[in-house]
């Protein structure tokens, strides 16, 4: 793929699509057509343990579309590069690839962005190299978490944490079941998506639907009870509910009844749950 004259890429991991990532997309949209450029296959190459994504792959387009009002009425597009193809590139070789192979017009990165083999390059070097290759470079300040500090959380934060919004911070909030905080960091309620398969099916009662945890397509919060949630069956059919997560199942409960009727009539393969409150 060639980005062409108008292509401006934001650089990052973009696994959470949190408000810091959104800020990168906003700056890219001011300079041209915005793309999010990230790397895939890092876990396999680096031997990391696989983990559930924060945003389900099938839900990323919806999230990016919700950024349209912030991004000059444009939906940011995603472009992924195999990590194995860039892992050993020096900072100069990486920028050269952006310029000559992908024909990028400009790049956007956070002030703490590192790139190149063994993260040898920093934001200042990115600006310098982009200038050499005739590209614009925009470095933005980290989006800080102004409402809380890591000391407020019931976890030991990463030693590199400086109070900025990060995917690590989001995952740590998930780990303690603080979904209100997750919503602040994401800039939206978290949406958990479950998919039934031939092997794993949903079961329903009048006031309850249960799904095996193996059906989850993205990260679920810790075990517990979550009030003020929403079950989205389609754009017009939203059911207020509470969610109970245990070691094996995700249970969706409502006081309104009729879930088994809805479930039976629609033969649901997907369940979309939005979390509105923290674990109790």
Automatic annotation (TrEMBL):
One annotated GO molecular function is: FMN adenylyltransferase activity
Sorted keywords for this record are: ATP-binding, FAD, Flavoprotein, FMN, Nucleotide-binding, Nucleotidyltransferase, Transferase
Q: Name the Pfam families on file.
A: FAD_syn
Q: Source gene? A: LOC106771164
Pathway field of the UniProt record reads:
Cofactor biosynthesis; FAD biosynthesis; FAD from FMN: step 1/1
Annotated Gene Ontology cellular component terms: chloroplast
- Please report the name of this protein according to its UniProt entry: FAD synthase
Tell me yes or no: is Transferase among this UniProt entry's keywords. yes
